[in-house]
Amino acid sequence: MADPRRPGVTAIHSLDRFVFSVPDLGVAKQYFTDFGLDVRAVGNRLDLYTFGHPHRWGSIFESGKPKKLEYLALGVYAEDYEPLRKHLEKTGVKLIDPHPLVDEQGFWLRDPDGITLQVVVAEKSSPNQKGETFGPMNMKNPAGTEIGFNRRSMQPVKPVRLTHALLFCSDVPRSLKFYREAMGMNLSDQSGDGIAFMHGVHSSDHHLLAFAKSDGPGLHHTSWVVRGIDEVGLGMEQMLNKGHKYGWGLGRHVLGSNYFYYQRDPWGSFTEYSYDIDFVGLDGWPAQDHPPEDSFYLWGPAVPEDFITNHETQAHKA
Question: 105, exposed or middle or buried, with CB in 10 Å at 0-12, 13-18, 19+?
């Protein structure tokens, strides 16, 4: 079955890959292995996969310096590649040399906050339909009664795929304008000028990218789909048992609707276990501006004080 395409629209279809650098690759390998990803060492970097899926969702390089978002790769259909490049040049967006960490195909540019973007022809990795949903996990006891699982029956939580990334930016409306006009994305929901969520017009999750106001650019979190709400909770237990004590959740978001647990990584950003996020098809989404109380969560524990701290700008100003 062919991937969906909104007629007459040239736009990116997926967040193809995120790339950041960290002080020590050994720390990164241990952390993402604990999280449940398939971590592969390739030359001077780590590549992040989910088990059983061929797509490379992320790459991490060692810099010896504080963590830094290096670039995002955005995927397009082959027929959109040249039209999108010509559109960008026509609208005054300056194309730049490839990022020094890589030698790959695609063209390069920067968003208004200076985040480096690579546009590549790639298979669509964003979903084409609402993902399968699962209720609470259950089993039957010897009498045939349906009961909950026991701990000895649990397997390690292994996320299925990447769903989105949330970026820090200095001006949310400016970022919305750029990614809408330059990349062809559309607004899903926002809460004033503080946070906004954007989807891919050729169908995607409620958001491929989200933007939160800060004092500059950075990566707040990447979000990973798991198979049920129990796996969100079990992912939390998995990380706690491996010594990763600082996180937020279990809870449920309003915007996007997904259940969540956020684990803080060794560099001050987060990785999220996510389940049952909203889906946006070719018919689009009725974007709304929501009050601040709906911008974080429907239910869950109180938000940690430093949850929206941009540790990248703090570290690189030091």
Answer: exposed
- Report which residue type is found at 165: A
- Cα dist. 201→31, 131, 205, 286 in Å? 33, 17, 10, 13
* Structure-token pair, residue 1: 């079955």
Tokens of 23: 């002080």
Of all helices (H) and strands (E), which one includes residue 270?
strand 270-275
If one counts the domains in the chain, the total is 1
Task: Fill in the amino acid letter for 161.
Answer: R
Distance (Å, whole) CA 168 – CA 308:
9
The answer to whether the CB of 215 falls within 8 A of the CB of 313 is yes
Whether the CB-CB separation of 208 and 164 falls below 8 Å is answered with: yes
Q: Which residue has the tokens 């050729």?
A: 202
| pLDDT tens for each residue of the chain, 318 residues long | 678 999 899 999 999 999 999 999 999 999 999 999 999 999 999 999 999 999 999 999 999 999 999 999 999 999 999 999 999 999 999 999 999 887 678 999 999 999 999 999 999 999 999 876 666 677 787 888 887 777 777 789 999 999 999 999 999 999 999 999 999 999 999 999 999 999 999 999 999 999 999 999 999 999 999 999 999 999 999 999 999 999 999 999 999 999 999 999 999 999 999 999 999 999 999 999 999 999 999 999 999 989 999 999 876 665
Question: What is the DSSP-derived secondary structure letter of residue 99?
Answer: P
Question: What's 262's domain CATH number?
Answer: 3.10.180.10
Instruction: Write down the pTM of the prediction.
Output: 0.94
- Show the domain range for 74: 14-125+157-317
Residue 292 lies in a domain: yes
Query: Is residue 136 assigned to a domain?
Result: no
